[in-house]
């Protein structure tokens, strides 16, 4: 017996901002009966993550494609893997049985055949305490990225100041909430009044501003941080990184999570004043969520407790149906999403 699986792929390598017309939906047939001893698992995908870094995989070349197994190049016509939640519908692996819920590396497709050698990239979901989508957002890699970047790269001290760019996005909003719970002064920036209001009114940021209404980032940051920025969580790069470094305190720390301003326009690259970096002894460190997989247990326990007790809000932006993935992905680069962008492919 077979199932027909639709999958989203690129028609060609993408240059500049992605458009719906860059993608197409194809189909493949998958056998429900798996070879005994293969350790393969067939998963029906329910929720999948939509992330900006995927654009670098879709380019003809990006330095990221050579740096991480999670960022390997995607070829036209090829299925695109992504983090998500699904249900096992067939298994030749003793660790999984039919109807087990799993989370991990699946794909922008109806069904994913997880080969035996790749089963390490998924894990069983034993808890039904939270909505399944939470395991793609705050309890998934977005949450781990925020947790690892803030606690391990920023290395906060109670009472310090933190600036977060793209603060209403999938990672930034969680970073700001962790920082407030830790006892920091937190300012975020976002691109609309609705997002700015969310940061201060619901998520507890001390202040926030609309960077699109700001003509001078340097002076704006100076106003919010008269004594300097101790930590900057960077999701943007470019001019924002320049302005943040110009306002850093002595021994400030910059956690570089993403550079979305450069993903669609390499000419927009901007660099910090290196004299500031040297004489203020500023640490600038890039990182990936995979760097902190050994901390996943602590992260999951801590974050689950915060959510359970109402201390941390989960902000999700969920679209529906596989065909909506190209529009959802395009929208990331137009600033359409608030919180974690997810597509729900199926109900169960």
UniProtKB/TrEMBL annotation:
Residues 16-343 form the Enoyl reductase (ER) domain. The keyword Protease does not apply. InterPro entries: ADH-like_C (IPR013149), ADH_N_2 (IPR041694), ER (IPR020843), GroES-like_sf (IPR011032), MDR_fam (IPR045010), NAD(P)-bd_dom_sf (IPR036291). Transmembrane segments: none annotated. One of its GO terms (molecular function) is oxidoreductase activity, acting on the CH-CH group of donors, NAD or NADP as acceptor. Keywords: Oxidoreductase. It holds the Pfam family ADH_N_2. The keyword Oxidoreductase applies. SUPFAM superfamilies: GroES-like (SSF50129), NAD(P)-binding Rossmann-fold domains (SSF51735). PANTHER family: OS06G0602900 PROTEIN, PROSTAGLANDIN REDUCTASE. This is 2-alkenal reductase (NADP(+)-dependent).
